[in-house]
């Protein structure tokens, strides 16, 4: 097996010494500056690297994060003894290197360290390769709820009918919609996504159906709407329960005839698209309350898929967390290598009111802020401050308390800015307003005194 090692050293002495000391199996790529090291690493993908630091302070210090950021390499520092006395370089050595040796280097001892580092790099690489593997339909998870979803998707992608997705905010409904597009006969066509809750009411009809020049003030040119733009592909309408009743009527007419008329126009335009709609609210309850048209519901609900909440698929949490770590490796702190067992257990015990979106945000934040080698529960915001609930509390009560605590904390952190809080929580502003109303919270995160 050929083991490639990158050596960054302005001089030739160390690479000559190692070449003379080693037997077969090692191949050294010697470069003299940082830019050459970065190019060599891209070309050779060395598992192990050696950086020789002869001067203090070293100009290498500022560039080392670029070199050591890769997840599949271990780095060894070989430093002049006086370099260790430089307080500005000590943190650099601690944060970026698997081990260090002092000059003059003991070749046999350094080779032993190289062997250990190479073995660790291989394990690290395999761990990240397995963590980054997709399961099915581009989604991560092997739990029973996800297996059931995969079985349904196997059937859905083969037929060209409307699909209605239900599930809580943050469960990944758009990911399912993209899978329906990617694995169907319409994969070569466009995927057009529209969040019905995020578009202002006075613009949503134009966003959906398009408009002609001069149709209203500011309409300077003809604009194609999302429905027309999705021809030959898939139109994903997220949070469809937030559409007004008059727009529901227009959408129903389109689904019946598969034709549209742009705002301000008279031409009838045929559209060939597949509609996938999603809602986190119970549309049956919305129908009973008069907020959603039953005939539109039945047009959309030809096939109904439920995307499970994260608390119902706890067996997937470790795999999901590892996948997030792998996919965001470029943002991690230099010393970070993975999760502690306590972090995994805390994630598996947490209720996840924000579902997968919440997990992604917490892991990404921990990867940036963690000071240690392994992410701990506190780095994820899952420490003692999230105190356990009383044993007598029901599951619904526990979830309500989690929701209330999360929303209140987020509003306080963002100085009562609802838009910023919604972005941090990973929901639309309309969804957050509805959640605040349900929980009896005002915009400052305090109990709403108007509710008796």
Superfamily at the CATH H level of the largest domain?
A: P-loop containing nucleotide triphosphate hydrolases
In terms of per-residue confidence, which ranges show pLDDT below 50 for 5 or more consecutive residues? 385-392
Q: Over the alpha carbons, how many angstroms does the gyration radius reach?
A: 28 Å
Mean pLDDT: 85
Shape: elongated
Largest sheet properties: 5 strands, parallel
Instruction: Name the CATH architecture of the largest domain.
Output: 3-Layer(aba) Sandwich
CATH domain topology of the largest domain: Rossmann fold
What is the terminal separation in angstroms?
A: 74 Å
Share of helix, binned: 40-55%
Any overview of this molecule?
With 452 residues, this protein is of the alpha/beta class. The protein folds into 3 domains: 3-131, Rossmann fold, CATH 3.40.50.2300; 144-308, P-loop containing nucleotide triphosphate hydrolases (Rossmann fold, 3-Layer(aba) Sandwich), CATH 3.40.50; 311-439, Helicase, Ruva Protein, domain 3 (Orthogonal Bundle), CATH 1.10.8.60. Helix content is 42%, strand content 13%. The chain has helices at 13-21, 34-44, 64-68, 90-96, 107-131, 144-156, 173-182, 204-209, 226-229, 245-257, 283-288, 294-300, 317-327, 341-349, 355-369, 395-413, 418-425, 429-439; strands spanning 3-8, 26-31, 48-53, 74-79, 99-102, 163-166, 191-195, 234-238, 259-260, 269-270, 274-279, 303-306, 338-339, 374-375. Helix 1 links the parallel strand 1 and strand 2. Helix 10 crosses helix 12. It is elongated.
Could you give a quick summary of the protein structure above?
The protein is an alpha/beta fold. The chain folds into three domains: 3-131, Rossmann fold (3-Layer(aba) Sandwich); 144-308, Rossmann fold (3-Layer(aba) Sandwich); 311-439, Helicase, Ruva Protein, domain 3, CATH 1.10.8. The protein has 18 helices and 14 strands.
């Amino acid at each position: 097996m050929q083991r490639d090692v990158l050596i960054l050293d302005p001089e030739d002495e160390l690479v000559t010494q190692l070449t003379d000391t080693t037997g077969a199996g090692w191949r050294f790529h010697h470069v003299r500056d940082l830019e050459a090291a970065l190019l060599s690493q891209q070309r050779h993908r060395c598992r192990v690297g050696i950086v020789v630091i002869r001067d203090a302070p070293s100009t290498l210090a500022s560039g080392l994060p670029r070199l050591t950021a890769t997840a599949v390499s271990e780095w060894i520092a070989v430093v002049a003894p006086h370099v260790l006395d430089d307080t500005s370089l000590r943190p650099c050595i601690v944060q970026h290197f698997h081990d260090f040796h002092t000059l003059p280097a003991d070749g046999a001892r350094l080779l032993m360290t190289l062997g250990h580092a190479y073995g660790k790099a291989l394990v690290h690489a395999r761990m990240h390769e397995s963590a980054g593997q997709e399961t099915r339909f581009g989604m991560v998870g092997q739990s029973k709820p996800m297996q059931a979803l995969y079985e349904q998707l196997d059937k859905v992608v083969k037929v060209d009918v409307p699909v209605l997705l239900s599930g809580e905010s943050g469960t990944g409904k758009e990911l399912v919609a993209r899978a329906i597009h990617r694995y169907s006969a319409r994969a070569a066509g466009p995927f057009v996504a529209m969040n019905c809750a995020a578009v202002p009411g006075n613009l949503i009809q134009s966003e959906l159906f398009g408009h002609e020049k001069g149709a209203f003030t500011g309409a300077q040119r003809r604009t194609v709407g999302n429905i027309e733009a999705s021809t030959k592909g898939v139109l994903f309408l997220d949070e469809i329960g937030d559409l007004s009743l008059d727009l529901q009527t227009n959408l129903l007419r389109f689904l019946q005839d598969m034709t549209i008329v742009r705002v301000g126009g008279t031409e009838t335009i045929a559209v060939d698209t597949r509609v996938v709609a999603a809602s986190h609210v119970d549309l049956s309850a919305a129908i009973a309350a008069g907020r959603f048209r039953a005939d539109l519901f039945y047009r959309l609900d030809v096939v109904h898929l439920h995307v499970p909440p994260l608390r119902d698929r706890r067996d997937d949490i470790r795999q999901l967390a590892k996948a997030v770590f792998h996919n965001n490796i470029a943002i991690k702190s230099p010393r970070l290598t993975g999760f502690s067992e306590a972090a995994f257990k805390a994630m598996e015990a947490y209720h996840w009111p924000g579902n997968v979106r919440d997990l992604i945000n917490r892991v990404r934040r921990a990867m940036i802020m963690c000071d240690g080698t392994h992410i701990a529960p506190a780095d994820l915001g899952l420490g003692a401050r999230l105190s356990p609930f009383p044993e007598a509390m029901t599951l619904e009560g526990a979830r309500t308390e989690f929701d209330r605590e999360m929303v209140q904390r987020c509003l306080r952190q963002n100085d009562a800015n609802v838009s910023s809080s919604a972005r941090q929580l990973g929901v639309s502003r309309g969804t957050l307003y509805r959640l605040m109303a349900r929980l009896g919270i005002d915009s400052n995160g305090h109990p709403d005194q108007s509710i008796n």
